[in-house]
Amino acid sequence: MHLLRLARAGFVFAREGVFGLVDPEALPPPARLGLRLARLVERRSTGTRSDRLTAALTRLGPTYVKLGQFLSTRPDVVGPLIARDLESLQDKVPPFDQKLAEQIVVETLGMPIAEAYASFGPPIAAASIAQVHKASVRDGEVLRDVAVKILRPHVADRFRADLSDYYFAARLAEKLVPESRRLKPIGIVDTLARSMAIELDLRLEAAAASEMAERTRDDPGFRVPSVDWNRTGRNVLTTEWIDGLKVGDRAGLDAAGIDPRALGQIVIQSFLRHALRDGFFHADMHQGNLFADRAGNLVAVDFGIMGRIGPKERRFLAEILLGFITKQYRRVAEVHFEAGYVPGHHSVDEFAQAIRAIGEPIHSRTADQISMAKLLSLLFEVTAIFDMKTRTELILLQKTMVVVEGVARSLDPRLDIWTSSEPVVREWITRNLGPVGRIEEVGAGAKLVGRIVGEAPALLGRAAMLSERIDDLTKDGFVLSPDSLRGIGEAEARRNRSSTVALWIIAALLAANLIWG
């Protein structure tokens, strides 16, 4: 079955002319022959390369559309040209039947549609995974509008079948083409599968929206629709209805008196604030998922794709952005080495020289000509020369930044990305790498010391239990050899010494921090 389904997919790609996008010079001789044979069935087309690719993926169904959207974030896998083509891939399909949608709501929520909602309208938007309806609910005497997102029927079964084909193809590639192992094809499918698991359970999307709302509660100019948990389940998600304008509706924004330049700045600053402060960001911030309410606030929807980065990645992002802003190229280079992204056998000075080659040209241009996304793209190209391994979390961050910057520039073509970014970046660095951050690090160290001290009775308890077990064993006639007893004693001694040494080292470091920090 895997081979039949993959053969059909290959035929669709060949028929739509996708194999014409592949450079034959980059392939081994047997693959070039296969490429020539595949192109024999290619249909004549006047469309662009992007049209051919999107047509093939759309014909193959929702899983392939999602695969294309996912691969647009991985230029290291498909190449920068194809990645750019995939960025325009739209996920729009006809809606499914209204009665079927209502049936899914009843089955998921366990109540009649009239009991769940005061009114339930037709679909207003549809994609390959789900569609959205406008409805209303009654809270006492108050009637309020809500958005109801419903998963397509049987979509999970389709995704499971297609993902099993992807795993089969990935394992085959790693087995037959050793060079492909560098790109980790099985790991790519793993990542796609995890992403799809979240999108196919609307309770998880609801949780992401709830977490984002909690983290951004006090953020200026940004908010998230509230989740109606009483009307949310695996296949149904109900949220507050956003009575606003799409950020791409310039005429509507002007008519409503909303300043698009201020909104563009909110887009950039909100994204950076979420990535740096929280390490949790909306990873699908295109114009269709962003609205402006009547107060001029930015409202984000659709939390099926979220990004997370750890403290090391946040520091990396903040310091390289500030380093480029202030022309501290050596510091940018040092951050790469400190994070362990560039192997230590390379020269920091040579890497700083490469960074300067990227940074200097941006300072000779006006602010509206400088692309932060382009800069990061060039940065990752340079780091490849210095053996920087692919960091999937950073690639998703870069991809999101490309989209966010495009949205911001569509609102204000002359937006100064760097002036908008600097306050957020400096605030994070001051907060986390300045005196306040050092005090918090000392506090964290004190907590660790307290935890180790608190575990001391447990260590003694385990030693007592060991002694009792040995005593029981010997009473029953089982005698340990002198060598065994000596081994047990030495192991326990090493364990206790390690705990004691660790305790004193941490205490000494804490004292040094308090004295010299």
Automatic annotation (TrEMBL):
SUPFAM superfamilies per UniProt: Protein kinase-like (PK-like)
Pfam families assigned: ABC1 (PF03109)
Taxonomic superkingdom: Bacteria
GO-annotated molecular function: ATP binding; kinase activity
Domain ABC1 atypical kinase-like span(s) in chain numbering: 89-336
Record keywords, A-Z: ATP-binding, Cell inner membrane, Cell membrane, Kinase, Membrane, Nucleotide-binding, Transferase, Transmembrane, Transmembrane helix, Ubiquinone biosynthesis
InterPro entries recorded: ABC1_dom (IPR004147), Kinase-like_dom_sf (IPR011009), UbiB (IPR010232), UbiB_bact (IPR045308), UbiB_kinase (IPR050154)
Coiled coil: none
Any one GO BP annotation for this protein: ubiquinone biosynthetic process
Biological or metabolic pathway of the protein: Cofactor biosynthesis; ubiquinone biosynthesis [regulation]
Family, as annotated: Belongs to the protein kinase superfamily. ADCK protein kinase family.
Protein's UniProt name: 2-polyprenylphenol 6-hydroxylase
